[in-house]
Amino acid sequence: MAFIRATGKHRRTSRPVKTGRNIAGIATLAAGGVVASVASPALAATDEARPHDTGLQQAVVLGDELASRVEAQADAQQADAEIAAARAKAEAVAKKQADEAKRRAEAAKKKAKAAHEAKVRAARDAERKRLNAFVAPISDSYVSTSYKASSGLWSSGSHTGIDFHAASGTSVHAVGSGTVVEAGWGGSYGNNIVIKMNDGTYTQYGHLSSLGVSVGQQVTPGQQIGLSGATGNVTGPHLHFEARTGADYGSDIDPVSYLRGHGVNV
């Protein structure tokens, strides 16, 4: 009696068909190109060389190799990303430090410039103050004969200046800044110096034993211009000092008020 099986339902798939299906599945896994290079040598083996291998076993092996390669590739990419992130962070830190160093350098430079400018201004102000200051013509002295004192010793009948007590050879100073307009013999004044002050007034220094400046010379407050003496119409060594509104005799003003008006205590 003949036994007839239903076609297709219980029939075992032939080896060539099954192998072909497995190969197709592996090719699908290798669509990214990574598996293809691994799969090709494995697929080259014939059924005779590996009679007991199935397509599923080959797929498992290839899958493991694929996973290893993908994992290695992912690790490499992650390492590259971490290196890039570390480099970017280091560059950012370096840039921040460089910017901070630049800011500090600029601040220090600005501070030094401001300090220098302040020092220059202070020196300029001090020099201006010094040049505008007035001093006594004889240091540590006193007025021995007052202004407008009456006596027959003077041709005008009264004293046109004040006398400062001073031994012969005592240093005589310009009372302020100005220009020498006379330096030489002045008749009854003996050796004398006349200075046109920067404010337009004039000062005179008489009876000098020695002259230390010449006409046209610029002088500053406290500068030595000569030495006191007893030349001209005198009874003894001293300094005759006059303040005038003009260069000529007869334009005299009170020397004490003049000096005090410029801050000199006499």
Automatic annotation (TrEMBL):
The keyword Calcium does not apply. SUPFAM superfamilies: Duplicated hybrid motif (SSF51261). Residues 69-118 form a coiled coil. Transmembrane segments: none annotated. Residues 158-249 form the M23ase beta-sheet core domain. This is Peptidase. Keywords: Coiled coil. It holds the Pfam family Peptidase_M23. The keyword Hydrolase does not apply. GO terms for molecular function: metalloendopeptidase activity. PANTHER family: MUREIN HYDROLASE ACTIVATOR ENVC (PTHR21666:SF270), PEPTIDASE-RELATED (PTHR21666).
